[in-house]
Amino acid sequence: MSKAKAGLLQGTLDMLILKALSPGPLHGYGIGQRIALISGDELKIEEGSLYPGLYRLERRGWIESEWDVSANNQRAKFYKLTRAGKKQLIIEEQNWERLASATMKALRAN
Amino acid sequence: MSRVKPTVDFIHAWQHPDEIADEVEAELRFHVQMRTNANIEKGMTPDEAQLAARQSFGDFDRIKNSCCEIKRGLPFDLKPMKMGLYIAIACIAGGVALVTVNLPHHNPFSVLWQLTAIAVLMRAFLVGRRKQ
Description:
Chain A is α+β, with helices and mostly antiparallel strands.
């Protein structure tokens, strides 16, 4: 398998952020860490690009944020999924599975 | 219900732009600080750790501005509303054109309304195509 880390497809970042937040609230740095963890460190995300993505999702009403104290006793902004965000994650997962399955079918065709 | 908070945030962002900029900056600085700490734990010197953290984060000011712009952006998509507006205008223009079609042919209002209706319908069609 290639050692090169996969770049992100357009629109995938939103789905990964929603997925990373599904177990519970996290701050931006934690979201980046969780995405790296659940992808086995295969998906490379520009750290800064995470934040415009978070703000866009918040504007759409899929996540919401509040300031709290982090584990190392610093003030941090924590994000969590809204009910609309949970529904959106299910839609995104279904769309992704359909796309992946169709792509695999196309690649296996003679 | 999920649109209420984004709308309140949008109004707040326009009323207090400096407060929003400070909040975004504090959030981004927290990230860089956390990355710096992680780099120090990996064995880097504090200066090396901070430099590496800034590099891996990217252009701080550009990202900060981008976040502030999103905060000040409308909390809903204007495109469907714009398309709806064109369709409504096209329907009104088309309706008036149908009413005025029975007026004497030399009546300037009849011709004007029919031309307007055609122009608006074409514009709506082009906007619709671009949206696809």
